Amino acid sequence: MRPQRITKGLIGTTAAAALALLLAACGPSQPASQGTSEPAPGSATPSTQSAPETSAPSSSAAAPTQPRPAPPTATSAAPQSTAAGTQLCKASGLKATTDATGGGAAGSVYMELILTNSGKSDCHLKGFAGVSLTTGPNGQPIGAPAQRDTSVAVQDVLLAPGKSGTAVLRYTQAGNYPDCAKTAAAGFRIYPPEDTASLFVARPSDACSNASIELLSIGAFQAR
Known about the structure:
Layout: H1 2-26, E1 87-88, E2 94-99, E3 104-105, E4 108-117, E5 123-126, E6 130-134, E7 141-142, E8 147-149, E9 156-159, E10 164-172, E11 182-191, E12 199-208, E13 216-219, E14 222-223
Parallel strand pairs: 1-5, 8-13
Antiparallel strand pairs: 2-4, 3-4, 4-10, 5-9, 6-7, 6-11, 10-13, 10-14, 11-12
């Protein structure tokens, strides 16, 4: 009887195994594990959309253009001896004198024309005075005015109160000209540079009323 039981047992075991295989084949298939862990409960599900790619700037892209610095503006330099805002010396703030100790030559007398700042603030002289012989403080000019002597360079002369600037004034004797129509002059009428008002310096001398004869010349003002 034992061989029959063993045979029946083997048959039963084989049948059970076959039934298990049949049930496994008919059941739903499960996806193979990919080795990823599921998110913890309550956590946000990661988005399946990939982040947009950012490309590095091309090496061939032109660098931003830097603005060129503006060219320096040309400016004219102020005279070295002139403070900013200093006004021209005017006749109303000046005192005029002459100094004839310089002597003379060939019928001419060389003298210094001196303009002194009699005001309370600085002023400056630049260039040539206008000079004429005249019949008096309020008289009219006689003959030709002084011609400019440009042998000395023009300077800008700053005058503090009480300070002076000088210019060389030459007077030629009227008797040197045979055709001179002589007229008595009481002195000089002086116009400071760029001024229409005048000063008077007494110095009696002969003048020529004919304007074709030039008895006077004046140089540019210099610092004294």
